[in-house]
Amino acid sequence: EAGVAQSPRYKIIEKRQSVAFWCNPISGHATLYWYQQILGQGPKLLIQFQNNGVVDDSQLPKDRFSAERLKGVDSTLKIQPAKLEDSAVYLCASSLGTVASIEKLFFGSGTQLSVL
Amino acid sequence: QKEVEQDPGPLSVPEGAIVSLNCTYSNSAFQYFMWYRQYSRKGPELLMYTYSSGNKEDGRFTAQVDKSSKYISLFIRDSQPSDSATYLCAMSPFVQGGKLIFGQGTELSVKP
Question: 3-class SS at B9?
Fold first, then answer.
């Protein structure tokens, strides 16, 4: 079974530039998440999609971050303009989203963003 | 105060040692508890999950939850160099649809 695919693996930009990350979840997974992991910290949820609708974006800095999930499958996360404190690993995760069992998240390898 | 506290380590042990990793939490609404393992430059992978107080065993790993003390643990028996990774606890008030709150992770190194 193919895992969660993310690209690019690494990105270096200057502050005030824009950047976009792409995620392809595991086939059949209804729920997709974007997490931000700052060095030395645990992942923090930015946004959660159920199919192509937003379930939770309460911790997404909406003045600079945006995300969409196209046709309920792939997703992109964009930062515009980037700040130094946005330097982090951006992790995409997906889950089946069924109500019958505990939610098990499968993570991609992430995109490491450095803002200079 | 953070909702979930985890000692970041690093923790270094010899091969074969028993490892104890711990998290404390403040939100009594948390009902579901998970342990994730994260290798360097990889995403976290789910190791174990539980939703009740007590112990749950899976091979060399045992997850322990004490809701009265708001304290969870992960024990690794007969630790191997391949166990070297960062271990993240995570918890949620809901079985589905609730965002996971992660601890900051404990970095473990098992020396041959």
Answer: coil
